[in-house]
Every structure is written in structure tokens, then in C-alpha cells.
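Need C-alpha cells for this chain, all 150 residues.
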Amino acid sequence: MNGLTRWRDPNTLAPWSAFRDMEDGFNRLLGELTRDFSGGDLTPALDIRETDEGFVVEAEMPGLTKDDITVSVREDVVTLKGVRSESREEEGEDHYHHVERRCGTIQRSFRIPGGFDADKIDAKYENGVLILTLPKRAEEQPKQISVNVN
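Here are the C-alpha cells for all 150 residues:
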């Protein structure tokens, strides 16, 4: 387990803090175990923000090229998928002492509330971040109503 534990002065600890520390350690251990032994898909972290015109999605997908990434849409669900291939050679002079970077399928699906215009999606990949711009449907965009003075 690769984690640092913060030192705490035992004279200033509340009675229940020992249980909290034990719970934190247990959660760290479970996180390490599920990361190391899950064998499943990697899940990219993402941010989704709404603008007046649509939605902007930023997904962390480091170590890929644009050709490694696919974006698919079905109804209002967006699926991001990429494949990070094994880059370490089995033979050679390099001997790894510690390996944390995982290879495999990176995948994430999410629903956009209210929908979007799938025909006008823009996708960019910059510095390991996939940036999707999902415009709102014309009927979903806010309309300005002018107020007349009588």
C-alpha cells in the first residue's frame, strides 16, 4: 500500500478519532485492492458544465492518441471509450521496480439532462483531456422575451 499517514499528537485526539483513523486506513486499503485486482475497465474522471448554448464535458484520458478514443451517442447517453495499450516491453534491459499505470479499456457512460443535438457535437483532445461540446437542442435553448412598454 502506497500511502502516507498524517501524524497526530495523541494528547489532542478526540475519543472517536482512533475509529476514524481506522476507517480511513480501511478505506485506503479497499481502494488499493479494488484498483489493483479489479481487472475491469478504467473510469476516466470527468466534469460536466452547462452553458446557455449547451454542455461542455471534460474527461481525463491521458496516455492516448485521438485514434485510441471513440465517442458514441445513443439517445441522451454519451459513451467515451479508449484503449491504453501495454507500452512496457517484456524483454529488454529495463527492469521495473514499481508499476502503477494500468493498461486496458477506459470507458465511461453518462446521461445529459434535457438532451442535446447529437448531430452538432464537437470533440477535441488536448493534453490528455477529451473536451466535448454538446449543443442544446433548439427547443431547449433559453429564449429572450422582449418587454414592451404601453
